[in-house]
Amino acid sequence: MKKINNFNSDEKILRYTNKIDYFFNSHKTLVVTELDLTNKCNHRCPGCCGHNENNAELEKEQVEAVVEGLKSLDNKGVILSGGGEPTISPYFEYAISLIKKAGMNIGLNSHGMSLDENKARIIAENLEYFRISLDAGSPEMYGKIHGMKPHHFEKTLENIAMFAQIKKELNSKTSFGVGFLTSKLTQDDMEPFVKLVKERGADFAQFRPFTGDTLDILPRLEELKKKYEDDDFKIVASYQKYKEMFDVSYRGYDKCHGMFFSTVISADFKVWACLHFRQSEKHFLGDLREQSLEEIWKGSRIREVYESINCAECPILCRNDSFNRTLNKLSLDVINSEFL
Fold this sequence. Notes:
Blueprint: H1 9-12, H2 17-25, E1 32-36, H3 60-72, E2 77-81, H4 92-101, E3 105-110, H5 117-126, E4 129-133, H6 139-146, H7 150-169, E5 175-182, H8 190-199, E6 204-209, H9 218-228, E7 234-237, H10 239-244, E8 262-265, E9 270-272, E10 284-287, H11 293-298, H12 301-308, H13 321-328
Parallel strand pairs: 1-2, 1-8, 2-3, 3-4, 4-5, 5-6, 6-7
Antiparallel strand pairs: 8-9, 9-10
Helix pairs in contact: 3-4, 4-5, 5-7, 6-7
């Protein structure tokens, strides 16, 4: 049976009882880290949330220091993302080998256009999941979302098919999917997108909302699942986000507990409390040129950021939202809690 991420982070966080215990004692809380190998990118997405304008890129020794630091904190998973496009980093393959040797699982978010056969084999042999962000079912929509030409769209589709074939040849267990960001602009491309992805052999098509967009796609999603799903192909979505769209007036929590369990290390060798606020001084945790990751995690700055973040100013349905709602229950004053 294929391993496909159900994006149920509200349930996943409860599996880490030791990390929750560390949360109360401010030590070794990290579960997953988003690592930006580079800020460089060869796409021109108008709505890009990366930081490719400064062209920062981790050096070989910095990649080594990051992996050593993550291992010391017993971090479980590393997502290679951006920032920029991770597959164009000169240390992409090296980072994968180091992270794997350190005993951490690896995921990759990529636009997929720069993939080649060698990189595809390395990914298929080492990663838990690989997601290509296509975000379109037509060259026209691809141009609007990625700022690229029709031949770039076709190249990415070829790479999807190429990776699916290599995965099959190697009998790889890597969960391989293609992502689509939903909004009023993109909604009519949902079905063409699913057809393209299924035809090229991906394990799944994944839907998630543009940050801050509240378009409800659940009815449409069920129609697509009935029409296209089978034993070899699934349609998945960030269900917890779509379900919370019905009421985004109050999050149900005031503190970002999730920042202790999920962090970001950017391509300029700095650590941030949130992927949505890379380069925001308010969310800056520390500079790895000056402190080790463990020193940052045990220092006073992380608690200062935790106390100062105003969650009302954060994007709705952010990555930490679902497990913030779950973790907030740990601090509730529940009457007669002894009577289960």
